[in-house]
Amino acid sequence: MREPSKMILLVEDNPDDVELTLRAFQQVHVGNEVVVARDGAEALEILFATGRHVGHPLPEVVLLDLKLPKVDGLEVLQKIRSHERTRILPVIVLTSSSEQQDLVRSYSLGANSFVQKPVSFAEFVDATRQLGLYWLVLNRTPPAVG
Amino acid sequence: MRLTFRAKLIALVAVEALAVIAMLLASSLSERQVDRELHSMRQRLLPRIALKPQLEASFERVSRSFQDAASAREPDRLDDARRHQQALLDQLAAAGDAISAPARAELRTAFHDYYVAANAVSRQLLADDGTGEGGEAMVGDMEAMQALQTRARALIDRFTGFDQRELVEAFTVVADAQRTASRIRLAVSAVCLVSALLLSIWIARGVVRNLSALVAGFARFGAGDFATPIAAATGDEIGELARHANHMAASLQALDDETRALLLKTQRQAAELAAANKELDAFAYSVSHDLKAPLRAIDGFSDIVVQDYGDKLDDKGREHLGRVRAASQRMGHLIEDLLRLSRLSRAELRREAVDLSELARTVVADLRKRDPDRSVDLEIASGLTTSGDARLLRIVLENLFGNAWKFTRNAAAPRIRFGTAQRDGRVFFCVADNGAGFDMAYAGKLFAPFQRLHTAQEFEGTGIGLATVQRIIARHGGRIAAEGELGKGATILFTVEELAT
Asked: Can you give the pTM of this predicted structure?
């Protein structure tokens, strides 16, 4: 039904959140391939196709948690925006934080969207539906450079 | 040892007074000397001037008497001549110092010679009865007598007159006395003036030198250099002033040091506080992230269990899972509220003029939009203004109106009023409703975080709203109070700034 290249990169260290996110995608019928990075370093390897992920294709969209082991989310975002290959890649910050400071810094580093993960799973499923509809169906991005 | 200006000025006045007295004394003494000389001159000159006509008149009376005796042939006249001669000699004797002793002696001899000659001639003429005998001898005697008469007259002239040398000498003495007097006056005046001048210079120099030191010292103090004291000589009033100024500077220096130390301490405390705040930030962030993740898992997996295995559970099991989910969601709200409260405490306060009436109207408009089915009688007084942080005051009104909105839900004719009220002589803003109200016994607990006076079944809420309001009002330096009666309604009173009573 969809092109196989429309892959989603989920950067999330909490296995519960990974499971719940995958479940939410499933519930709202987002059938795209979801690649999970467990820390910031792994996310960067996947995005720049280096280390254990040589030749890895670019995802369609990145769902980025902020609080991550090794390399934190904001640093990952900064690297994404400072490299030609990933400069225009849509990045959605998906975090538990409601801190104003995180919101401001995320947007000033070039995040496309900032979504606070609700405690309620029902609300989370609803948010996921809207994200999927917008970023995977409605939104158009220029063809990937890499 | 320096004298005070007071002493110096007294000394100056004293010296001036002494000088004036000395001048007067010198002046008067020298004037008296001049007077004395003048007097002595008069004493010497005047009697002699007066003597001349007296001697002349008396001498003429003697001569006349002899002439009369001869021509009228009256021998009695010779007695007159003798009497006049005696008067003449008495006058001469009485002349005293008017003429010199040798002159007196010479005059006396001349008068005597004339008298003797004239007496002899007169007697001869009386004795001669006009025969003309012995005429030649007579003529000789008469000529001799006339010569003596002429000589006497000439001597009167000479000895009662003044020669130039004598006059010059007399005036020179007076002039000398006068010159000496003016010299003394001049010398005394000069000494007085010079001493007064020197004294004045001495005083002025002291003043100027000390004043310069004082000016330089005050300039230093003004520039904040309290370490170098004013180097004014002590002893006089300026020295005293300098001493006090130095004392003041020392106090200021001490105060300055103290202030600096205090400032340093304050800065250190501010830095510590900033560090503590940063830690708090990190903590809040951690709480926000770390506590919510497990809650999400609890809620999410409970939901999944219900969805996937709901048919394998009985109603009781499903209800229990529902409670798990409700509890986790409530905990999520509590965490959010707690974080919001901590953010409020840390946010910077920016004061500006705020129109509370306008703010209240927008807050109420939001409430109506969210709950369009409710009909509440709302009354907002206009022109309620204050100075405060508009963002924070909006949160205050949101909470107060939100509460009033919520607690009037079961009222028959819900009414909310926003205005002012007087308490303890102070004007408070107030939000009053006729809702559920509360028991005044619990009024003190109303503003504590998570403190609720209603069950969750009656009215929802986390109990953080009034705690938030109280914290915002406290940050503004205002006061807050609650009044209420169970079932009748509640009134929250607050001030934003410390109003003058």
From this structure: 0.48
